[in-house]
Amino acid sequence: IAEAPPTSIGHPKQLYLLFFAEMWERFSFYGMKALLLAYMVTQLKFPEPKGYAILGSYAALVYTMPLFGGMMADRFLGYRKAVIFGGILMSIGHLIMALPQGWSFFYGMAFIICGNGFFKPNISSLVGTLYAENDPRRDSGFSIFYMGINVGAAIGGLLCGYVGQRINWHYGFGLAGIFMLVGLIVFYLGKNSLQHRGLPPDVKNLKKPVFAGISTEIIIYAASLLVIPVVVALFNQYHFMDYIMFGLGAVSLVYILVMAFRMDGMARSKLMAALVMIVFSALFWAFYEQNAGSLNLFAMRNVDMHVAGTELPALSVNNFLPPAWVIILSFFFAWLWPVLNRKGIEPSTPLKFGLSFIFVGLGFYVFYAACHMGTETGLISLTAFILGYFFIICGELCLSPIGLSMVTKLSPARMVALMMGIWFFASAVGEFLAGKIGALMSVPEEVVNNPVLSLPYYAAILSKIGLWSLGIGVLLICLSPLIRKWMADVR
Ligand code: GLN
């Protein structure tokens, strides 16, 4: 950050409040996710395809709820109340998961899902409120925020991964819960520094009794709690998720298209540009999210974790590496983009999106090549594993933080929170697809303990992911001049 260009120096101090609140929230979120699949497969003894289906459904719902949480905040609650309510639900969810009781597992996840819907999109939108529409610091503000996300994710993955895998799975989940509470407290104590930002659009209306003396605010909270048993039921009948994701995907696409066509020319084409990039981002996450899925099991089974005579805990390593690379490479990209900009050759947002697929493709090919070299022992080298993630994270940094900022710039002001919800919904679709792709890497029971035999199951699909990602990258690069044109004056 020290070498960042002059335009990114001097951010509003509230950015650091949001940074730390989000940092601890992501600690808990990624700490828990690091354990999830391995816990289901090794402890609950779920067959692997079921493990992938539940993981995919959980992560899909986690990122679907922001659609509703974003909408409720825009219309009624304002961002601040939404973040606090979401934080409370997430804390309860993580702490429930620390209980060893059978019922607690699905309920814990359901609370996290509902809570995330209120927390995640609205804390991101709050970052957007710190900058005027064309403030040049907006992008770097989001990059700093993204750094907070990843500091939390790195420590969370490392610690919860270690505690869960090596000491006790439930202590790992519990640790996540404690730090979610820390995030919530940080936000609660600091929220007044946000001044007028993120307050409810109409407090009187929100507090006014509308039904049997109950206010809109309480109705929203109560309705959200009712969603929890529905989510639990869905986990028990996870096949329904196919219809839900397809239905919601179609509805949101049509809704945005209708909204776009009601707007004037410039606003419409900007929204269309955002929409196209959002659709591509879903595919990006489908590949990327193998990290929290298949690559967890791959790391446990087929990556040589021995370093200097000790065996590292695979879940910690696999979940620490991506955010750690994000932190390191963020500095590089924070330096690179302005340099390219000054030379007039900074890639446009859609071109960066295209490059992100190329990087992810290269990353998966590194894993694949390493599989080829490791056929004798069934283990790939840790160095190759680290290198593969290097490329994948270059891809992430060309898409994810840029996408957040892009959404706040290309959407009309009154639709920002909704569009933020749709941006995260693309992650939901991606996560769901990631579960399906992961399931293709299910390893039969009889070979799970034999790395030589399990390796080919991974190698075959890793190479396909690489190929698809490169192909989509090329397509998007070809489309990028057109999308760039639709973006009009937005850079
Ligand atoms: N890693 C980022 C985060 O947790 C992006 C996640 C996403 O959009 N899928 O915020």
Automatic annotation (TrEMBL):
<keyword id="KW-0813">Transport</keyword>
<feature type="transmembrane region" description="Helical">
    <location>
        <begin position="144"/>
        <end position="164"/>
    </location>
</feature>
<keyword id="KW-0571">Peptide transport</keyword>
<feature type="transmembrane region" description="Helical">
    <location>
        <begin position="416"/>
        <end position="437"/>
    </location>
</feature>
<feature type="transmembrane region" description="Helical">
    <location>
        <begin position="105"/>
        <end position="132"/>
    </location>
</feature>
<feature type="transmembrane region" description="Helical">
    <location>
        <begin position="382"/>
        <end position="404"/>
    </location>
</feature>
<feature type="transmembrane region" description="Helical">
    <location>
        <begin position="271"/>
        <end position="288"/>
    </location>
</feature>
<dbReference type="Pfam" id="PF00854">
    <property type="entry name" value="PTR2"/>
</dbReference>
<keyword id="KW-0653">Protein transport</keyword>
<feature type="transmembrane region" description="Helical">
    <location>
        <begin position="27"/>
        <end position="46"/>
    </location>
</feature>
<dbReference type="InterPro" id="IPR005279">
    <property type="entry name" value="Dipep/tripep_permease"/>
</dbReference>
<feature type="transmembrane region" description="Helical">
    <location>
        <begin position="457"/>
        <end position="483"/>
    </location>
</feature>
<dbReference type="InterPro" id="IPR000109">
    <property type="entry name" value="POT_fam"/>
</dbReference>
<feature type="transmembrane region" description="Helical">
    <location>
        <begin position="240"/>
        <end position="259"/>
    </location>
</feature>
<feature type="transmembrane region" description="Helical">
    <location>
        <begin position="320"/>
        <end position="339"/>
    </location>
</feature>
<feature type="transmembrane region" description="Helical">
    <location>
        <begin position="170"/>
        <end position="189"/>
    </location>
</feature>
<feature type="transmembrane region" description="Helical">
    <location>
        <begin position="210"/>
        <end position="234"/>
    </location>
</feature>
<feature type="transmembrane region" description="Helical">
    <location>
        <begin position="82"/>
        <end position="99"/>
    </location>
</feature>
<dbReference type="InterPro" id="IPR050171">
    <property type="entry name" value="MFS_Transporters"/>
</dbReference>
<keyword id="KW-0472">Membrane</keyword>
<dbReference type="GO" id="GO:0006857">
    <property type="term" value="P:oligopeptide transport"/>
</dbReference>
<dbReference type="InterPro" id="IPR036259">
    <property type="entry name" value="MFS_trans_sf"/>
</dbReference>
<dbReference type="InterPro" id="IPR018456">
    <property type="entry name" value="PTR2_symporter_CS"/>
</dbReference>
<feature type="transmembrane region" description="Helical">
    <location>
        <begin position="351"/>
        <end position="370"/>
    </location>
</feature>
<protein>
    <submittedName>
        <fullName>Peptide MFS transporter</fullName>
    </submittedName>
</protein>
<keyword id="KW-1003">Cell membrane</keyword>
<keyword id="KW-0812">Transmembrane</keyword>
<dbReference type="GO" id="GO:0005886">
    <property type="term" value="C:plasma membrane"/>
</dbReference>
<keyword id="KW-1133">Transmembrane helix</keyword>
<dbReference type="GO" id="GO:1904680">
    <property type="term" value="F:peptide transmembrane transporter activity"/>
</dbReference>
<feature type="transmembrane region" description="Helical">
    <location>
        <begin position="52"/>
        <end position="70"/>
    </location>
</feature>
